[in-house]
Specification:
The complex is a heterodimer of chains A (311) and B (316). By secondary structure, chain A is an alpha/beta fold. Chain A contains nine helices and 16 strands. Chain A has one domain: Alpha-Beta Barrel (TIM Barrel). Classes of the chains: A alpha/beta (311), B alpha/beta (316). Chains A and B meet through β5, β6 and α8 of A and β14 of B.
Chain lengths: 311, 316
């Protein structure tokens, strides 16, 4: 019999049982998925974005399917910090996997207030800083496209997060993603997650109007996978490897093969997003698939696979 | 007492195709059989609920049979599941059969039309709230717009089974006779009320038909046909309930009629959606908060698809 692979991962000071997360906005606050999958088998869980005040979100249509992908413009619709603490924290407390709370806002002080309030909650393992949402007019992506702003917000939120790890989620909508990655790391980011969606548009040719009420949306799904693999590899080579900062690779992962591609490119862990909408619970299948790959390749420890891309 | 493990009320199941009958050009009725936990979950499916079908791996029909307006659709790959409501649910022994009425309109339904007996389909459901059937109503009025027929045929059965004393009338409209999703030939339909639609007649329900072009039944919108009927009939507002499913403009009109006549009304809404289980937040329906001017977005998939017509702010 082949030796079992050690699939555990050290990630920003946390020990994860395996390298597979479900990413923000694609698995709610955990309660919705109870009928479909055992979330305790995941490596990690990232909540839907939380803002200080509740947000209504954008009017319909909010999504449209595109070729091998989908556009969404939800507009950070969420229940707000108070209701999150009251209604969702008790659910999250029951999860045995590390939970990152994805935090968004319009101003730095909003981010800081949310993180400060949650920093003492034992149920929360860490934070993911959303500075890359393309679907809101204020805040969001503007923090993620300018290195000085990225550094400023990262440093402020890192302080607020106290002992808890801070992961910064990067937008691909920049000339050089490594510049933002470096700014975030130098400002104290413990991990990087990439990529968020690409700003994109779909047009209804009968009405000559954009399909989405927001006009543009974020493109996700298999359509962006190869770009995401490239950007993960770029950030790994140019920033993360030297600084020993783990990368959470995200973008169109549907299968274990996709996940392995990201890990070879330099990701320490991977995040499943759009695929959760098609097959809730596919993350568990992906974990099994990664284990089989490692067994077949006689990889004893999954850490060997990270950044193992050959020239 | 034995403690049996509780069966899930919803989930992801594989169903087997029993039949995929073409009822007229571009309209089909798909029969799906569930076993095990899927059968138990779908046995409790209520009219107005829906399921998400994964149609991504189904082959396209032969290109020569595809209408010209759908040729572009053949080049599109399917990523997301597609939501469908049910026109019938039956349980026999440990199997549950779910029937779906659908129209071929794009890449997913084009693939769906090639499903044949024995094929397997991945299905998530049953989802959403479904119609509620109050005990105190003597008359139920079903307003169908085009493909809104499915869940109201299902509701017709539930009403006649569970509330046999309730008198039910159906009003079905479409642009043309060809676009009415009913099996029976409609060329002989008279303008008056009658048992013209077999799908409703089966449950002893009289139906009205309206087409925009007058090619069958009443010439004009179904809402006009319905409001004309309502004016001359003697239903007591408090004893009556309206159920509607169809295009949003039609639902808005039905809601307006219901409000004017002070009749309870439930509308089944439609939105583009991804997950169907309340996670992606992509299917908002704007609703009033009590009697205030404040509005919130409820989710079509989770809070709906059936809403009280009084709470919905219909998009124009």
């Amino acid at each position: 019999m082949e030796e079992k692979t050690d699939t555990s991962v050290d990630f920003a000071g946390l020990k994860l049982a395996n390298p597979v997360f479900v990413v923000s906005g694609t698995s709610g606050y955990a309660d919705e998925l109870a009928d479909f999958t055992d979330l305790n088998r995941l490596g990690g869980f990232i909540t839907k974005s939380i803002t200080l005040k509740p947000r209504k979100g954008n009017p319909p249509e909010r999504i449209v399917e595109t070729d091998a992908g989908m556009l969404n413009a939800i507009g950070l619709a969420n229940i707000g910090l108070d209701k999150f603490i009251e209604e969702k924290l008790p659910i999250i407390e029951k999860l045995k996997v590390p939970v990152f709370v994805n935090v968004a806002g319009e101003t730095i002080s909003e981010y800081v207030t949310v993180v400060e309030r949650l920093a003492t909650e034992r149920a929360i393992a860490g934070f993911e800083l959303n500075i890359s949402c393309p679907n809101v007019t204020k805040g969001g992506i503007s923090f993620g496209t300018d290195p000085a702003q990225a550094a400023e917000i990262t440093s402020a939120v890192k302080k607020a997060a106290a002992q808890k790890p801070l992961m910064v989620k990067l937008s691909p909508a920049v000339t050089d993603i490594s510049v933002i990655a470096r700014a975030a790391v130098e400002a104290g980011a413990d991990a990087l997650s990439l990529i968020n969606t690409f700003t994109a548009m779909a047009i209804d040719i009968e009405t000559a109007k954009p399909v989405l009420a927001n006009k543009t949306g974020g493109l996700s799904g298999p359509a962006i996978k190869s770009i995401a693999v490239y950007l993960v590899n770029k950030v790994y080579n140019e920033v993360a490897k030297e600084r020993r900062i783990p990368i959470l690779g995200i973008g169109g992962i549907r299968t274990a093969s996709d996940a392995v591609e990201f890990i070879i490119a330099g990701a320490s862990a991977v995040g499943i997003g759009t695929a959760n909408f098609i097959e809730p619970g596919c993350a568990v299948k992906i974990i099994e698939g990664i284990k089989k790959y490692c067994a077949r390749k006689e990889i004893k420890n999954i850490k060997e696979l990270t950044g193992s891309l050959k020239a | 007492m034995t403690n049996e493990p509780s069966k899930p009320s919803k989930g992801a199941f594989d169903a087997v195709v029993l039949a995929n009958k073409q009822i007229k050009e571009r309209f089909y009725r798909l029969g799906l059989e569930f076993s095990g936990d899927g059968a138990a979950a779908f046995a409790k499916a209520r009219p107005g609920q829906f399921a998400e079908l994964d149609l991504s791996c189904i082959a396209l029909p032969p290109i020569e049979g595809i209408p010209e307006d759908l040729l572009d659709a053949t080049q599109r790959k399917i990523l997301l599941r597609r939501p469908f409501s049910f026109c019938d649910v039956t349980t026999e022994g440990d199997k549950t059969t779910v029937e779906i009425l659908y129209r071929v309109v794009g890449p997913a339904t084009l693939r769906m039309s090639t499903l044949s007996k024995g094929d397997s389909v991945s299905i998530i459901g049953p989802l959403g709230n479904g119609f509620s059937i109050p005990a105190d109503k003597k008359t139920a009025l079903l307003i169908v717009g085009g493909m809104g027929a499915g869940p109201l045929i299902h509701l017709a059965k539930a009403l006649t089974t569970n509330r046999p004393s309730t008198e039910v009338f159906a009003f079905a409209g479409a642009k043309t006779a060809e676009e009415l999703p009913f099996e029976k030939q409609l060329d002989k339909i008279s303008q008056g009320v009658g048992f013209s639609l077999a799908e409703f007649a089966e449950y002893g329900i009289k139906s009205f038909v309206a087409t925009d072009d007058g090619s069958a039944g009443f010439a004009g919108p179904v809402t006009k046909c319905f409001s004309d009927w309502l004016k001359q009939c003697r239903v007591a507002a408090g004893d009556t309930i309206i159920y509607a499913c169809g295009p949003e403009a039609m639902l808005a009109k039905v809601a307006e009629i219901a409000k004017k006549r002070k009749v309870d009304c439930q509308v089944s809404m439609e939105r583009m959606m991804a997950c169907g289980i309340g996670i992606c937040q992509s299917c908002p329906v704007e609703c009033k908060v009590n009697d205030s001017n404040e509005t919130i977005y409820k989710l079509c998939c989770k809070d709906g698809p059936v809403f009280d017509s009084k709470e919905v702010i219909f998009s124009s």
